Amino acid sequence: MLLVVCSVAELWSTDRPLLVRYQGEWFFPVFVEYSEKTFGGDFDTPADYLDPYVRSRITQGGHWALYAPNPYGARTIDVYCTQPFPAPPSARHWLGTDDRGRDLLAQLLYGLRTSVFFALALTVVGTLLGVAAGALQGFLAGKVDLLFQRFLEIWSSLPELYLLILLSAFFTPSVGLLLLLLSLFGWMGLSDYVRAEFLRQRRLDYVRAAQALGVGPWRIALRHLLPHCLSPVFAFLPYRMGAGILALTSLDFLGLGTPPGTPSLGELLAQGKSHLDAWWISLGAFAVLVLTLLLLTFVGEALRDSLDPRKAMR
C-alpha cells in the first residue's frame, strides 16, 4: 500500500490542479502545461497555480479547480510563505518546509518513491545477476566454480565507496550511474546462496534419475534445479530492497547520490544535521525510513516462514 501511494504521488501532492473547468472547457494541468493567458492572465509563461491572482482567475465566474490534498510539488518553492525557511509545521505546510522552502510532505512522498523504485530496480538486476552466477558455479562445479570463486574474492575486495567518489569526480551524478555501479557489487552475496543450493541439489536422487532417463544437463538445471533453489532467493528479496534504500539514503547523505534538487531522504537527513533546531526535517525523514524498513522486514520474515520446508512438512 505504501508503494502504491508513493507511486501516484502526483495525486496527493502537486502544485498543479488535477482538473480545471474554465469557460466551458476542461483542462488537466497535472498532465499538460498551460500558460497564464489560458486562464485570463497577462503573461505567456507557465501558469503559477500558487499565485493568488491565477487562483482567483480560475475560480471566479463559476469556474472551479480540483487541487491535490497537499498543493505542493517535489520542486515547489513556496515564495508566498510568510515564515522564514525552514518553516515549522503549520496549516499551510503540514510537516513544515526544508531550508529551501520546499514542502516537507511532498519531499517525503517523492523521495520515498525515488528510493523504493531505485531499490526495486537494484534488487531485480542484482537478483538476476546473482542467480545466473550462482547457478553456473553450482551446476558446472569443478574448475569453473574454483575460478569463479577466485574472481569473486578479487572483485569483492574492491573499495566500492572509493569507486563512487572517483566516478562522481568524472561523471555527472545520476540515478542510472548509481544503479550501474551498485549492481556490479550487489549480486555477490546472493550468488553464494544459489551456488550452495545447486551444489546440494545436484547430488540428490531426483537429479540422478533425470540423468539416467537421458534428460539434458541444461534442462535439468533450468526445470529441476533452479525452481528448488529459488525459495531462499524470494525470502532474501525484501532484505535486498531494504539494503538498496539504505545505500541510496547513505550516498545522498554524503552528497554522492542523486543529482542536486532530486527529492531524497538522505538529503533531508543531511539538512536535519545542518539545522538541528528544525527538528521536523530529520524527524519526518527518519520516521519514513524506519517505517519502510520495518515493513520490508515484516515481509521478509513472512516470506521466510512461508517458504520454510520444515514448516511445510509439519
UniProtKB/TrEMBL annotation:
The chain crosses the membrane at residues 116-141, 161-190, 233-258, 278-303. It is found in: Cell membrane. PROSITE patterns: ABC_TM1 (PS50928). Pfam families: BPD_transp_1 (PF00528). CDD domains: TM_PBP2. The keyword Nuclease does not apply. Residues 112-300 form the ABC transmembrane type-1 domain. This is ABC-type transporter permease protein. It comes from Candidatus Symbiobacter mobilis CR.
